[in-house]
Specification:
The protein is of the alpha/beta class and 505 residues long. The protein folds into two domains: 5-239, P-loop containing nucleotide triphosphate hydrolases (Rossmann fold, 3-Layer(aba) Sandwich), CATH 3.40.50; 257-501, P-loop containing nucleotide triphosphate hydrolases (Rossmann fold, 3-Layer(aba) Sandwich), CATH 3.40.50. It has helices at 45-52, 75-80, 98-103, 117-130, 145-158, 175-190, 202-208, 231-239, 299-306, 329-334, 344-348, 355-360, 378-392, 408-421, 438-453, 465-471, 494-501; strands spanning 5-16, 19-30, 34-38, 60-65, 68-70, 83-86, 109-110, 113-114, 163-167, 194-198, 211-216, 219-225, 257-267, 274-284, 288-292, 314-319, 322-324, 337-340, 426-430, 457-461, 474-479, 482-488. The longest helix is centred in the middle third of the chain and has 16 residues, at 175-190.
Amino acid sequence: MENEYIIEMLNITKEFPGIKANDNITLQLKKGEIHALLGENGAGKSTLMSILFGLYQPTSGIIKKNGQEVHINTPNDANDLNIGMVHQHFKLVECFSVLDNIILGVEPTKGLFLEKKNARAKVMELSEKYGLMVDPDALISDITVGMQQRTEILKMLYRDNEVLIFDEPTAVLTPQEIDELMKIMKNLAKEGKSILFITHKLNEIMEVADRCTILRKGKYIGTVNISETSKEELSRMMVGRNVSFSVNKKPSKPGDTVLKVEHMTVPSKVHGNNAVKDVSFNVRKGEIIGLAGLDGSGRTEVLENLFGIATRKSGMIRLDGKQVLNRNARESIKNGFALLTEERRATGIFGILDIRENTVISNLKNYRSKAFPLMLDDKKMRQDTQWSIDAMHTKTPTQETKIRSLSGGNQQKVILGRWLLTKPEVLLLDEPTRGIDVGAKYEIYQLIIDLANEGKVVIMVSSEMPELLGVCDRILVMSGGRLAGGVDARNTTQEEIMTLAAKYV
């Protein structure tokens, strides 16, 4: 009898110094199924998949492929077993074309020369078969994130991979790109591919997965059939308690206008036109403003300009009636602004530093010892770091752990805690819950609401419409770099917002 499972990971344990990332975990992938891997940040999901792909070796346990034990010591071993992986942060060479990236490492040759004609034909055939159309001659640096992800998928298919691993595949995609990816994954499974995907998004699991394995604190909790479960049950298994899916937000009573943005124009980093075009808006004390819009609409550039890391072509910023220039990050922090960036790995974390250093780095002047001004108050830094860890529910062995060793979601929690410690008057949040598990997500929502209730100004960009509708008081909609309109979050719909988002496209 043919083995039901294409992949079996049996009793897998993986230990690192000071932490047991995987503790006796078993996962079984059926042929042709979409199998979700769910767990809080730091639950061990990415570690388990990295073992399957040969990036780590298990401390104990075995892996079987089609019923036969295998040893996967490197990614090359994984590829030889027809196992591929799309990492959360893509492994593409930006100055290469799509085709060159796909064939990199398995370049077809004719004598001493590259022979791309057949490779191109195979890529185009795969693109059409699986609905992955992308220009093979386009440079990676010139295509969207969604197209880059398609390139990564084509890399796997070009190598004839039959087991496809997706690590947080929708974390950096727009809603439209997410819908397209869901269709692609279903199509891949229909064609006989077996898919493992890591996600925090319960809606995605309910939509596309056949089964789901849940991990908690490195341990195996269970595997369920999606047709026989619910979002509530999945979240309960994930965090070990009931999780509220409602935001405890009472109707706000904003005060006087605190922040004024007048005629902001910001040049594009890539093209000769402007990313933000003559945008003006006001924000009142204690108000949470959402910035909605399609990818490339100028949302991020507005936040970056407010924080002084994007060049302002024209316009003025006033805080409490006084003009603030915010010419750089240091000046912005001094003026009471804080920015949580979208790209935490590139612009948020200091990878070589530990968690405590990453937590206090934006607020060092407040840690100078009174007795010895040239020295820092280590006790106070430890206390504040612990407050941040506890408030954010950050999963880490110690404060001295290097931040680069944490999961992406836990890195995000450290950065958010860092900015809260600066006690900002204006908190700018760019995709604040990207990569955050469902339990922590609603805790962060409550923190944002509490800050607004204290009179702080919050402006947040989010691609998740329910997030904007649930947390914000008003939503400003960007379209083609312009402000297309503003709506009351309590009295609008997703359809109205999307109509505004397409106004100047």
